[in-house]
Amino acid sequence: MTATHPTHGARGATGAHAPTAKRQWAEGLTVFAAVTLMIVSVLDILRGIMGIAEDDVFVTTQDYVFQFDLTAWGWTHLVLGAIGVLVSLGLVRGAMWARVAGVTIAGLLIIANFLSLPYYPVWSVVMIAFSGFIIWALCVPRSHTGAEH
Q1: Which of 28, 50, 51, 55 is nearest to 140 (CA)?
Q2: Which residues lie below 8 Å from residue 77, measured CB to CB, with a gap of 6+?
Q3: With CB atoms counted within 10 Å of each terminal CB, which end of the chain scores lower, N or C?
Q4: Can you name the residues that pair with 17 across neighbouring β-strands?
């Protein structure tokens, strides 16, 4: 009488490890983070262009503790957005440097949007929320397949 026992890291027809639900979840979150970072970054680039081209698009607040020149904020958002696009492309390729850079860029986007809150309040809150989701998705631990048996 023979018994079959499941082995660790079940293999598919090609001999490769079959993806587990946990691994698929983590990979899906990485794709989510990459796409969301790409969208947030492109929107940040557009926001930067608006700030550089037309300062009067934004609300100005006289009594805000963190007062900055709106053209400078435009350049800040433009640069962060451009870097974010590059990082999101690295995330699509699965590069580890892109995961670290993605968390960093999303953190900087949160800070930049917090500081520019009175100039574009609703949009800043939306961008902060999206950036928080990006950080969460990139910080979810990925499961690795075991060594080949």
Answers
A1: 28
A2: 44, 45, 47, 48, 51, 112, 116
A3: N
A4: 11
The reply to whether the predicted model has a pTM over 0.85 is no
Q: CA–CA separation, 73 vs 116, rounded Å? A: 8
pLDDT 10s per residue in the chain (149 long)? 555 545 444 444 555 555 676 666 667 788 889 999 999 999 999 988 988 887 655 555 566 555 667 788 888 889 999 999 999 999 999 888 999 999 999 999 999 888 888 777 888 899 999 999 999 999 876 655 444 33
Query: 132: which 2 tokens?
Result: 């928080």
* Torsion angle (degrees, nearest 10) of CA 99, 146, 26, 32: 60
The DSSP output letter for 140 is S
Q: Are 79 and 101 in contact (CB under 8 A)?
A: no
Phi, psi of 71 (to 5 degrees): -65, -40
